[in-house]
Write a structure and sequence with these properties.
This protein is mainly alpha-helical. The protein is built from 9 helices and no strands. The protein folds into 2 domains: about 160 residues, no CATH class; about 50 residues, no CATH class. Helix 2 runs antiparallel to helix 3, helix 2 packs across helix 5 and helix 3 crosses helix 5. About 5% of the residues have low confidence.
């Protein structure tokens, strides 16, 4: 992972101490999540790619494997994924103040945009406006790409190969068919955690026998 020169000292501090002092971190956190919140179309899943690019690739504040762990926690918690993710990432970097600031920065652009739409545009005008409809038609494929991109990088970081690819594929299928509790994503997060713990116990027992 290539980290810009200006962020090398910050990266080392973040990786070593979690919530240690980073120069101008609060201002950078606010600006980073404000940009992410302002350019995220399609919900929290579309935001994952932008957060990963900003915090992992560009800033180098968080390792990719740790990013996946924090993402799993954000998904398991109740509430909006985008806000959960921002709060967890902010807490990881600057404690409770970072969590509040990151969540606020993520929400603020949407609040401003919705406020302007409520003042200047009506639902009928948006629905019947050919220009706006065309813009959103072009945005939809981009949203799909934003969702797929972090899936590929996450699969690589999680060391998912041909032998284990059936697990996420089957899970995605079960969630998509909408069968009530069976399609609840939290169920599969819990099952995944249980499976990981079981694998740990089996591995430890095997090592002790040796």
């Amino acid at each position: 992972m290539k980290v810009p020169e200006s962020n090398k000292d910050e990266t080392a501090s973040a990786q070593a101490g979690g919530q240690q002092y980073l120069p101008n971190i609060m201002r950078q956190l606010f600006w980073s999540f404000f940009k992410i919140g302002g350019f995220t179309f399609g919900g929290g899943w579309a935001m994952i790619s932008l957060v990963e690019r900003e915090l992992v690739d560009r800033k180098g504040w968080i390792q990719r494997t740790e990013f996946l762990d924090l993402l799993a926690i954000a998904q398991a918690l109740p509430g909006i994924l985008a806000v959960n993710m921002a709060a967890i990432m902010g807490d990881r970097l600057r404690g409770s103040r970072g969590a509040v600031l990151s969540a606020f920065a993520t929400i603020l652009p949407s609040f401003i945009i919705i406020l302007l739409i409520a003042i200047f545009l009506t639902p009928d005008l948006i629905k019947n406006n050919a220009v706006i409809s065309s813009i959103f038609m072009g945005i939809r494929p981009a949203v799909v790409a934003l969702i797929i991109a972090p899936v590929l990088t996450s699969a690589k970081a999680a060391k998912i190969g041909w032998r284990t690819a059936w697990i996420p594929c089957l899970t995605a299928f079960m969630i998509s068919i909408d069968l009530g509790f069976i399609s609840n994503p939290i169920l599969y997060v819990i099952l995944g955690a249980a499976g990981g713990y079981a694998h740990f116990l089996v591995t430890r027992r095997h090592i002790r026998k040796q």
